[in-house]
């Protein structure tokens, strides 16, 4: 016996609405059509699915058992249809996105959630690491697309576009006793914490102003080290805004304006055609506002 999807839809709608008239309205069909599909399903299965009352229907114990299977089959059918549509649209069966760990935020989480919702059949993999590792993954084919700090130089085999920019601020440990009047020279003898990718791309001198410095490949780790009193740092404001509000670190600069602005890049291999899922990710990131 093979129940049709239309029969199962009629059965589920009737059970949910406790009546064929309401089910017919929900399905956009005539009541007689729904009645015929229910009757045929009962004949085909040999089960009594409903107890007929004068003005309503009651699902039988056998009907309740079948209901769960019907729901599962309809979900599988919907997933099958979505998979067929995705294949026709050129959506891949899997996609790997790499994001610099210092750029993770709620907006990205929401964008990833939309990707999952739009392409439920696609196997999505999210990797996080530092910018230089992500560039390596991109050139070796480990990931399909990455979001990373702008490194100025990219290998010839990689394509990119600027995403959003963000303000950078100078933070110091709350444990330090520094002059109330901002004095940058007071920091020169203190340990500075710097993102390692800046050194990797030859821009260390543009970032490091202290006589002593320590490199770290993770902005969140740098923030935690500043909280612990290890050193001071230039960090994206959106990374340390909550810590500033909670007075876990100090803002050590003349005003609240960003000391400088950095940019982020979307990067992917030139040889890889942009499929709909990648395009959705790119369009989503494009919609992010610059962080001041």
TrEMBL record:
Highest taxon of source: Bacteria
A Pfam family it matches: HTH_1
Gene3D superfamilies to which the protein is assigned, alphabetical: Periplasmic binding protein-like II (3.40.190.10), Winged helix-like DNA-binding domain superfamily/Winged helix DNA-binding domain (1.10.10.10)
Sorted UniProt keywords: DNA-binding, Transcription, Transcription regulation
HTH lysR-type domain segment(s): 1-60
Keyword field contains Transcription: yes
Cross-referenced InterPro entries: LysR_HTH_N (IPR000847), LysR_subst-bd (IPR005119), WH-like_DNA-bd_sf (IPR036388), WH_DNA-bd_sf (IPR036390)
Similarity field: Belongs to the LysR transcriptional regulatory family.
Name recorded for this polypeptide: LysR family transcriptional regulator
UniProt organism field: Agarivorans aestuarii
């Amino acid at each position: 016996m093979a129940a049709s999807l239309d029969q199962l839809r009629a059965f589920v709608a009737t059970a949910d609405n406790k009546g064929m008239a309401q089910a017919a309205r929900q399905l956009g069909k005539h009541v007689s059509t729904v009645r015929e599909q229910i009757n045929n399903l009962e004949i085909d299965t040999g089960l009594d699915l409903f107890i007929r009352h004068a003005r309503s229907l009651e699902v039988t114990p056998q009907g309740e058992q079948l209901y769960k299977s019907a729901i599962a089959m309809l979900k599988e059918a919907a997933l099958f249809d979505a998979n067929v549509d995705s294949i026709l649209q050129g959506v891949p069966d899997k996609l790997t996105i790499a994001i610099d760990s210092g750029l993770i935020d709620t907006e990205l989480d929401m964008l990833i959630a939309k990707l999952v919702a739009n392409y439920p059949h696609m196997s999505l993999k999210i990797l996080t690491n530092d910018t230089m590792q992500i560039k390596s993954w991109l050139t070796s084919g480990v990931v399909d697309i990455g979001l990373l700090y702008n490194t100025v130089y990219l290998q010839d085999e990689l394509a990119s576009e600027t995403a959003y920019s963000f303000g950078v601020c100078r933070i110091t440990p709350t444990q330090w006793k520094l002059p109330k009047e901002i004095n940058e020279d007071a920091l020169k003898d203190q340990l500075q914490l710097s993102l390692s990718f800046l050194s990797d791309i030859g821009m260390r001198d543009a970032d490091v102003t202290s006589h002593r410095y320590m490199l770290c490949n993770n902005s969140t780790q740098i923030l935690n080290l500043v909280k612990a009193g290890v050193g001071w740092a230039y960090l994206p404001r959106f990374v340390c805004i909550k810590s500033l509000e909670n007075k876990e670190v100090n803002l050590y600069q003349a005003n609240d304006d960003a000391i400088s602005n950095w940019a982020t890049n979307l990067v992917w291999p030139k040889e890889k055609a942009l499929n709909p899922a990648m395009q959705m990710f790119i369009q989503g990131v494009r919609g992010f506002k610059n962080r001041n």
